[in-house]
Write a structure and sequence with these properties.
This protein has 215 residues and is of the alpha+beta class. Strands 1, 2, 3, 4, 5 and 6 form a 6-stranded antiparallel beta sheet that branches. Strands 7-9-8 form a 3-stranded antiparallel beta sheet. β8 and β9 form a beta hairpin. α3 packs antiparallel against α4, α4 crosses α5 and α4 packs antiparallel against α7. The longest helix has 25 residues.
């Protein structure tokens, strides 16, 4: 969100917004509450979640520094479609609707960055919908891992680190059990396609991972 801005526009954004800090598991916004702008993540990790049927919580995505939460409706009279919660300590810049309108009017670069980020987030949630439509948990997981690799902005010819990601979070993202995720990841690791740790995953061979979808 902020990377594309020059210093003058970045300073303007920082002056216009309100800085806030959130502790682990604290909500930046809650599903169903009135929406009022966006929260740009400056430091830390935020997860987006949706309350499913029978009280089951579905994890939609995780966002890091430079991303924002508060979409899809950032202007107008709407309520949040999902929640955003801090994973560890998070620092964020809140831009309410008035601030966003001001920045759009004063900074074309900000307006373009906002549009591009909305497109990226829309693609991410579209990918999630397609992933959930897969018939088998293995297929859904592989599709998710491929998309996470593509979003990681790293050289696809070498190992791709997916950073802080757990089996429990993967299970919540594709609507599967942690046990099934463990079995699928174990098979991928045995084949040398991925390497896993307690909270870190590395995709060693993206081409081989993609091939899992077509096999």
């Amino acid at each position: 969100m902020l990377k594309a801005l020059d210093k003058a526009d970045l300073d303007l954004v920082m002056r216009t917004g309100r800085l806030a800090a959130y502790q682990n598991r604290e909500y930046l916004l809650r599903e169903g509450e009135p929406a009022n702008g966006i929260h740009i993540i400056l430091n830390g990790i935020v997860e987006s979640t949706h309350a499913g049927t029978q009280g089951r919580e579905l994890m939609l995505a995780t966002w890091e520094a430079g991303d924002f939460v508060g979409a899809p409706y950032i202007l107008g009279d709407h309520r949040h479609s999902w929640s955003a919660r801090a994973l560890g300590r998070v620092e964020a810049l809140h831009l309410d609707q008035d601030a966003i309108r001001t920045l759009i009017a004063r900074s074309p670069s900000f307006a373009v960055a906002l549009i591009e980020c909305l497109g990226f987030k829309g693609e991410t949630y579209s990918m999630l919908a397609q992933t959930l439509a897969g018939q088998k948990a293995a297929e859904r997981l592989v599709l998710l891992l491929v998309k996470l690799c593509e979003n990681a902005a790293q050289d696809e010819n070498g190992p791709i680190s997916l950073g802080r990601i757990t089996q429990a979070n993967l299970a919540r993202m594709i609507g599967a059990t942690r046990q099934s995720i463990s079995l699928i990841l174990g098979r991928l690791q045995d084949d040398g396609i991925i390497s896993t740790g307690a909270t870190k995953m590395v995709v060693n061979d993206l081409a081989a991972l993609r091939k899992q979808v077509t096999d």
